[in-house]
Amino acid sequence: MPKDNCQLILALDLETRADALAMLERLGDSLGWVKIGLQLFTAYGPDFVREVADKGYHVFLDLKLHDIPNTVAKAVQSISQLPVDLLTLHGSGGAEMIEWANRARNEYAPSMNLLAVTVLTSMDAPQLRSLNVNASPEEQVRHLAKLSLGAGAQGLVCSSLELAPLRASFGDDPIIVTPGIRPKGSSADEQKRIMTPADAAAAGSDFIVVGRPILKAADPAEAARAIQAELA
What we know:
- The chain is an alpha/beta fold.
- The protein has helices spanning 17-27, 38-54, 69-79, 95-108, 125-130, 137-150, 163-170, 197-203, 212-215, 220-231, and strands at residues 7-11, 33-36, 58-65, 86-90, 113-117, 155-157, 175-178, 207-210.
- The protein has a single domain, classed as TIM Barrel.
- It is built from ten helices and eight strands.
- The longest helix is centred in the N-terminal third of the chain and has 17 residues, at 38-54.
């Protein structure tokens, strides 16, 4: 089902804190959500998350947690002290890991939503087979989605190409975030399974994640506004 309120998240995948803050200065209020991934988080830690949130942005912390259940639960407890709205963990970590993570979330940060990563948008069927996963990407996404949502995750991260079957199976309630979004005319880079912003919104995405088409634009704020206009 189409999402009238599909929102844009900027993938703030830059080399340094200075680069990231300069980009946010250029973007101003042209968007409301920022994804902080492993690169910046491992370099600058929780203080950087607070710094971005203090500028008025909602934070999607994309750490893809994957470990034994107790370790992941303790990580969620630690992250609960930060201004984080969305947090990722790997659906392939299994139901018990997600259950433990969700218990920690319920206790320490009930307003934070846990998103299970299904199949990375950089992976295709041959890569899955190399990992001894003989299911197609769509079948594996559906399997991990059912497992993750059943274990308590509030949402999913998946390719936009799997949006329609996931909405058909699980309805409107799960939050679905779709990376691998490329406006028309943009390079696909290393992404294998991609879609335009308008098509992703039409297929039922709640949030789209866009990085390089904004970060590399001559006018990043204008690029962000153009994508949001396409969503609308």
